[in-house]
Amino acid sequence: MKNLLANRVKTLTPSSTLAITAKAKELKEQGIDVIGLGAGEPDFNTPQNILNAAIDSMEKGLTKYTPAGGLPVLKKAIIDKLQRDNNLTYKPNEVIVGVGAKHILYTLFQVILNEGDEVIIPIPYWVSYPEQVKLAGGVPVYVEGTREQGYKITADQLRAAVTDKTKAVIINSPSNPTGMIYSREELAEIAAVAEEKDILIVSDEIYEKLVYNGIEHFSIAQLSDAVKARTIVVNGVAKSHSMTGWRIGYAAGDADIIKPMTDLASHSTSNATTTAQYATVEAYNGSQDAVEEMRQAFEARLEKIYPQLSAIPGFNVLKPQGAFYLLPDVAEAMAHTGYDSVDAFAADILTEANVAVIPGSGFGAPTTMRLSYATSLDLLEEAVRRIDTFVKSKWQD
User: Fold this and answer.
1) What's the mean pLDDT in 191-206?
2) What separation, in Å, do the N-terminal and C-terminal C-alpha atoms of the chain show?
């Protein structure tokens, strides 16, 4: 039989986050008491006012197709949100609603990349960025944001990485997996390079609402009209409103990019789920009290669990400023426990300590592992206790 698979899928790497989560679920089904710190989603239910809006829309018969780029009423809610929260002004033809921010990013790369175009991706990165770039025929170009730099890249690094094939740079702030946030000054320096080199900025702001210790999120598109014109802002309600399964994300940017994204969506998804769109209208137009309550809960967990995790031998942890992840560098711990691979280290933590963590190899950071604190404080403290016991039991001087 002929080879049935297209070349574009042969180099795909499965999502490490989903793989670990699946393994943890398998162990749980065997009756093993596994604590999962792998999932990238809030552990709260979607706020009640949003649930009510979804039910109401269905009862009114609002269950048919919508325009491919999103309901007009939802586009207006997004535009109002961007004005209210970010002081950014957009028109309806500069906004597209998609099936989650992941689908938005996939669609974006499909419409901006030609074969061989390069996209600069800071390390550590969210696992899907390189795969989506490659699927669009692009070439990921990695630039390391070291721990000493707060896991952020500098303008000088960006400038050195740009070639005549560079199409865009991805900025994810607050970051998955590091939780670090670019300051306004850092963003201004990066934007200056993007303007100098005439490249696009893909600004992934999905964790925008989850910021701590008085730090504020700032969108790079806020810097100036010129920067806004070359920036595609990507966001959604998954993390901010605990709506991961509703699959609503959006992009805001140049109409000449948003239109082909919408055209492509019309041939792939038709539209994001109608009920979820109406729910998102309420998410942005309704009370934001639940958003703040969840943010405060995450901050309280961070304050409690960060020093405990940092106390584990060989765990070097930068305190995150946003999102809900901790990314300890465990190179020292591995060296003293006989591991030469973070994947093997994480695998044994799962099977021996019964704690699911994500190895940093999937994020381009092979001496780290990601722990999500999107779970109860009791479970977090027990998980850290188990990991601590595991490391100390194998420690060799």
Assistant:
1) 98
2) 56
